[in-house]
Amino acid sequence: xxxxxxxxxxxxxxxxxxxxxxxxxxxxxxxxxxxxxxxxxxxxxxxxxxxxxxxxxxxxxxxxxxxxxxxxxxxxxxxxxxxxxxxxxxxxxxxxxxxxxxxxxxxxxxxxxxxxxxxxxxxxxxxx
Length: 128
Hints:
Elements: H1 13-38, H2 47-67, H3 75-99, H4 104-124
Helix pairs in contact: 1-2, 1-4, 2-3, 3-4
């Protein structure tokens, strides 16, 4: 979709596409991880993980939607969204990594968070 936009985007289209793909994948992974945590026997020990997953999923989803709109592009808003997303992914990735030894879904989610954090950081570095 990004390559079909007729206007000037103001961002590297390949980096933007990678970031949007990573954001969508991370949102899905976080949503699924939160759901899987709710099915674990020790759900009471996963409350922070669940909350962090849901926050990260929401932030990634919103960031993907903002990055998909280019008409009237606002670099300041884009920077803020990417910074928030990087922090959310770092926090969620750390939380899931702490449970990765016991829960495969947390390991997978931590990987998705790290990949998304990296893709967003790469895009952020190109914004003037």
